[in-house]
Write a structure and sequence with these properties.
Blueprint (H helix, E strand, L loop, with lengths): L3 E4 L2 E4 L10 H5 L2 E9 L2 E2 L2 H14 L8 H14 L4 E9 L17 E8 L6 H5 L1 E7 L14 H12 L4 E5 L5 E4 L3 E6 L2 E4 L10 H12 L3 E4 L4 H5 L3 E6 L3 E8 L2 E2 L7 H17 L2
The protein binds N-(5'-phosphopyridoxyl)-D-alanine.
């Protein structure tokens, strides 16, 4: 079934959805994005995604394409037109179409706004039942990973490198030997009863799921340490997991072929997933 997408004010069948070859998103990766999960036709953590979008736009001095009320209405209309029960809504804003120039285009150039849906299971996934294997790879990205830009070549290459090593996903590692994050998710280990995840800085994306999981872990009495951890520390951990809008909380069962614990999803990862899913479904709009 062909999807109905949204492009600059119009709802269009995907075959008719087009942007200019001069769009700066296409020519310069001059754009930002958000991915919001839909379960039961409702949006998870929508306010968080809008807050981060606002921040990303601000950091890049990019105009907002429209109001957040309009963006909510567009998300809901795409859910309705595509009868989307479970899946994702992808939103991308770029600095618009303009003559190719490293300088920003003239004031008043309209940002481009594109949204599309991607149907698929979120709650029940094989990756959650069996846990994922990760491989560590060098983090080749730029220095402002806190901005959710569409420059996704380095994480795409990281994921392919991990797959070539027989893993499901990559954990990217800085030159200092500390894990930054997954190719498209935040990374956690559990050691000595503590949940450890890298602190917020320009080195990682400030995950919306991470914010909820860190809060919920503390609320359920878990000890959370926000600090960097090395690959060696991760391999010696009792368990590990990742978080993202699409993965929610997904257990990691091995790192570079080294099994964690007994090699099956750990109890704390499972518990965090249950708690996160229950809370986010209750708050979905
Ligand atoms: N990725 N780190 C990176 C590098 C990411 O790309 C993402 C999200 C996250 C998790 O952020 P959140 O919890 O807000 O989804 C962390 C999205 C899902 C993607 O690119 O598909």
């Amino acid at each position: 079934m062909s999807r109905i997408t949204y492009v600059n004010g119009d709802y269009l069948p995907e075959a008719e959805a087009k942007v200019s070859i001069f769009d700066r998103g296409f020519l310069m990766a001059d754009g930002v994005y958000e991915v919001t999960t839909v379960v039961g036709g409702k949006l998870i953590d929508f306010a968080g995604h809008m807050a981060r979008l606002r921040r990303s736009l601000g950091e890049l001095r990019m105009d907002a394409p429209t109001s957040e009320d309009d963006l909510l209405a567009i998300h809901r209309e795409l859910v309705r037109r595509n009868a989307l029960e479970e899946g994702l809504i992808y939103l991308q804003v770029t600095r618009g179409a303009a003559d190719r120039d490293f300088a920003f285009p003239p004031a008043g150039t309209k940002p481009s706004l594109v949204l599309f849906t991607q149907a698929g299971p979120v709650l029940e996934r094989e990756s959650v039942r069996r846990g994922i294997k990760v491989a560590t790879v060098p983090d080749l990205r730029w220095a402002r990973r806190d901005i959710k830009t569409v420059q996704l070549l380095a994480p795409s290459l990281a994921k392919m490198e991990a797959k070539a090593k027989g893993a499901d996903d990559a954990w990217m590692v800085g030159e200092d030997g500390f894990v930054t994050e997954g190719s498209s998710n935040n990374a956690y280990i559990v050691a000595g009863g503590k949940v450890v995840t890298r602190h917020l800085s320009n080195a990682i994306l400030h995950g919306i799921t991470r914010a909820s999981v860190v809060r919920l872990a503390a609320e359920t009495g878990m000890n959370v340490e926000e600090r960097p951890f090395t690959v060696a520390e991760a391999k010696a951990a009792d368990e590990a997991f990742i978080t993202s809008a699409s993965a929610f909380v997904t257990p990691v069962v091995s790192i570079d072929g080294v099994a964690l614990g007994d090699g099956s999803p750990g109890p704390i990862a499972k518990r965090m997933r249950e708690v996160y899913v229950a809370e986010s479904l209750a708050r979905a709009i």
